[in-house]
Specification:
With 60 residues, the protein is an alpha+beta fold. The protein has one domain. It is built from 1 helix and 4 strands, in the order E-E-E-H-E. It has a two-stranded parallel ribbon with strand order 1-4. Strands 2-3 form a two-stranded antiparallel sheet. A hairpin with a 2-residue loop joins strand 2 and strand 3 (28-31). The relative contact order is 0.34.
Length: 60
């Protein structure tokens, strides 16, 4: 068994869908699509501790 565990640095890429509505969050508008994408990714990462988020990119 190989105990060589690797850590992977990754960037999150979130893309706005123009068909989704926006919701107020704080003092700015945030797309439902962006919020949902980030929630799904963060949920996935909970079960993959070897993946560390280095940066986040949002395409609006």
């Amino acid at each position: 068994m190989n105990n060589n565990s690797s850590i992977y640095q990754t960037g999150l890429y979130l893309r706005l869908s123009k068909e989704d509505g926006d919701v107020a969050e704080g003092s700015k508008l945030v797309s439902n699509s962006i919020s949902n994408q980030k929630a799904l990714i963060m949920d996935f990462l909970k079960s993959h501790p070897e993946i560390k988020v280095y940066s986040e990119y949002v395409d609006m």
